[in-house]
Amino acid sequence: MPSAIESAGTNWIALTKKTGKVEEREAEKIFETLPPAPIETFKGSWKGFSVNTGHPGPKKNDEVRWAGKNFWGVDDVEPMVQYNEAGERVWMEQIGKARFREVKYKGVLSTAMIYDKMPITDHFRLVNDDMVAGVMDTHLFPGEGNMYFYLTKL
Predict the structure, then answer these.
(1) pLDDT tens, 120-140?
(2) Model-level pTM?
(3) What value, to the nearest 5°, has the Cα angle with vertex 143 and ends 70 and 150?
């Protein structure tokens, strides 16, 4: 019988495989069951994917050809990586860098990525060794709710 943590990860993975729109409350409910993602989890490059809740963020990510994120160190994060015209992953310098901190989100102390130049904090939870779930906390999209996404290790 799978543990509660394994079940939460399985539920998140099932959510990512859904076609069409997912209700934000469903994504939120599953996200909140996931365990904290330790900072050590993140070293390296990760591919990014959006969860379609109807939030406008994924459309913006598609427009810039969002590829994911690069995590080189606690104070050295490239929060927005895109595909260039040649299909290569490149850091979006105009967005700036970010850093990791432990921050409480909805009562759970976990890893957060705080953008240096943008009013954005991404909160992460662990799905498994190769996937983390994220939620973008920002006031850039008033009244639009939270944007959920996930990253897979490259």
Answers:
(1) 999 999 999 999 999 999 999
(2) 0.94
(3) 25
Question: Please, which pLDDT band fits residue 4 given cuts at 50, 70 and 90?
Answer: low
Structural domain boundaries of the chain? Answer: 4-153
Which CATH architecture group holds 4-153?
Beta Barrel (2.40)
> Any idea which residue has 């859904």 for tokens?
18
In whole angstroms, how far apart are CA 95 and each of 13, 19, 40, 117?
A: 29, 30, 24, 7
How many beta carbons lie within 10 A of that of residue 79, not counting itself? 24
Q: Please, are residues 50 and 65 in contact by the beta-carbon 8 Å criterion?
A: no
Question: Tokens 């008033």 map to which residue?
Answer: 142
Q: Output the CA torsion 9→15→17→22 (10° steps).
A: -160
